[in-house]
Amino acid sequence: MDDLAEVYPELNVPGSAPNDVYSQAEKRDFDSRVEMEVQKATSARKIEMTEKTYEAKKEMEVTDKKLLEAKEEAKENNEVMERKLSKQKWIWKKL
User: Which segments does the entry list as coiled coil (predicted)?
Assistant: First the structure.
């Protein structure tokens, strides 16, 4: 163990026995597992946010379509009202 610790000084972590290669290996294994769990959680969150973004965009498209339809209907109603008003003005002029 002393030889390994001398060859691989990065295995020595402050606060641990300088030649405790086994505990250093366990720490690296633990750190690797923690990192993997963080990556899995991050990936899951990214997927969830991507799905929510997609759904929000779809809802916005539906809302935009409804708004466009409402504008077109309002324009048509306005044109009908203008024709009726024009006709009434013509009738009043005749009287």
Answer: 57-91
